[in-house]
Amino acid sequence: MNLNLDDIWNDTLKLIKTELTEVSFNTWFKTIEPLTINDNQILLGVPNEFTKGILVARYLILIKNAIKQITNKDFDIKFIIPGEEITDIGQTIQNEINDNSTSRAQLNPKYTFDTFVIGNSNRFAHAASLAVAEAPAKAYNPLFIYGGVGLGKTHLMHAIGHYILNQNPKAKVVYVSSEKFTNELINSIRDDRNVEFRNKYRNVDVLLIDDIQFIAGKERTQEEFFHTFNALHEANKQIIISSDRPPKEIPTLEDRLRSRFEWGLIADIQPPDLETRIAILRKKAKVENIHVPNDVMLYIATKIQSNIRELEGALIRIVAYSSLTNREVTVDLATEALKDIISNTKPREINVKLIKEIVAQNFNVKVEDFDSKKRTRSIAYPRQIAMYLCRELTDLSLPKIGDEFGGRDHTTVIHAYDKISSDIKNNPELKLKIENIINEIKGK
């Protein structure tokens, strides 16, 4: 039997459509992409872990039965999210990174410049990314993009990769998280494959490395990346790096790496304003082919202000809630669907003064002690916790936080942050205490 997956999947969708409401079908099945097929397995691409979970829990049997009706054969169905490696399909996945399809496989197909919503908060980073994509290694090298979680850094990195491959299909483009880079390095050392590892990352045209802050403190990883960076830069190859903070604020990052990250252009992404948040929701609804009234989009954009990932997740949650309860999408339904993740009260403004006051109360010290030169543990440790919380809960730079604690140097803040981070990991009692303090600061 000639197994043409596209034909099989199109016929499968026709069957499934007769079994579901239009809302459920559009919500869960329009985003599925047929990937590969062999004698006993079909891989289907889905946009995220949430969709994968719903499909496995509610629709897997329906899909398998529909495919069996079309093919007269039982297939194992596996859902793959972007970035997940395809391993147990009965065909060889080429490892050579000069293969265009392998370069593409690392990139989320939905993360392109066309799907990126531009606003005042990200205009500079978008322009810089487009300039690099149009002229790799000629515009800005490296390009360093930083910003908070879920603001679009990874989207821009993938968009650069897609654009370059569209212009030059033979380009060797590698996207990797710093965590994966570290794990591959460890495995290469263990298996005596150092040469193979270095060839993989030093013989590319474009290297996109995400969340570089996680190599801080890892001496061997920093050493390897330093030489990788040098090899690529000297060969006039493009390097794009992302982080949750600028190079100068990454603690325990080697100075030689810090200076290299600052050679090119540093671009930041800030939380989106209201107009941009609404535009992001409209774009997401269009891409996912779902209808959401404008008043519901305004409600979501008003309630979720800092994180694009949470913003889009709220939209999907509302549509899923509508589908599962067979109700129309309204503001009332949205309020009900999001009641566990947003508050109806205006969030408390968090600043250094508030953090100091609440930490001081919890440790029975005076607020003014935090600004003093006193170094007894009963004062120094709560001061370090307050500095840690200022770094976690505010957008202040390290030097500014130091200024707020009696004019201390930013390296003191870095030491405090690293110290408390380590203590939290090793002391469950302290972790619980700090979680309670954070809830108190947030007014929960």
What does this structure look like?
The protein has 444 residues and is an alpha/beta fold. The protein folds into four domains: 76 residues, 2-Layer Sandwich (GMP Synthetase, Chain A, domain 3), CATH 3.30.300; 168 residues, 3-Layer(aba) Sandwich (Rossmann fold); 64 residues, Orthogonal Bundle (Helicase, Ruva Protein, domain 3), CATH 1.10.8; 90 residues, DnaA protein, C-terminal DNA-binding domain (Chromosomal Replication Initiator Protein Dnaa, Chain: A, Orthogonal Bundle), CATH 1.10.1750.10. It is 54% helix and 9% strand. The protein contains 19 helices and eight strands. The strands form two sheets. Strands 5-6-7-4-8 form a five-stranded parallel β-sheet, with helices on both faces. Strands 1-2-3 form a three-stranded mixed β-sheet. α3 links the parallel β2 and β3. α7 packs antiparallel against α8 and α11 crosses α12. InterPro entries: AAA+_ATPase, Chromosome_initiator_DnaA, Chromosome_initiator_DnaA-like, Chromosome_initiator_DnaA_CS, DnaA_C, DnaA_dom, DnaA_N_dom, DnaA_N_sf. Oligomerizes as a right-handed, spiral filament on DNA at oriC.
Salient structural properties:
Helicase, Ruva Protein, domain 3; DnaA_dom; Rossmann fold; ATP binding; GMP Synthetase, Chain A, domain 3; lipid binding; DNA replication origin binding; five-stranded parallel sheet; single chain; 54% helix; 4 domains; alpha/beta
